[in-house]
Amino acid sequence: MKPLTILFITIFICSPLLLRAQPDTVKYSYCELIGTARLFSNKVTIDIDFGEAKNVWLDNRVRDEQTGKVRIFNSMVDALNYMGSDGWEFVQAYVVTVGQQNVYHWLLKKRRRESK
């Protein structure tokens, strides 16, 4: 009788440890919006860096899907709204000054779709 009581007490004490599930980890993809001011304009040209290997000759500016022309944004916030409509979320921003020109860097993240 005593071993049976000890067994039930042990199961009762250990059951919360056994039932605790591992927390789900959320996976994110990141990209960086790089905005440079256009010459003699108040609009911004946006490059997107997804962290992939770059070809020196490849142009990675945002293009209109229908016309193929480089998309010109009114501001960095306009570009953020464009990316936000595709599910990207703002993480961090910083500015680097090159010569007399400010180059804006905005880091974005997006939840990955996990296939099971």
Automatic annotation (TrEMBL):
It comes from the Bacteria. This is DUF4177 domain-containing protein.
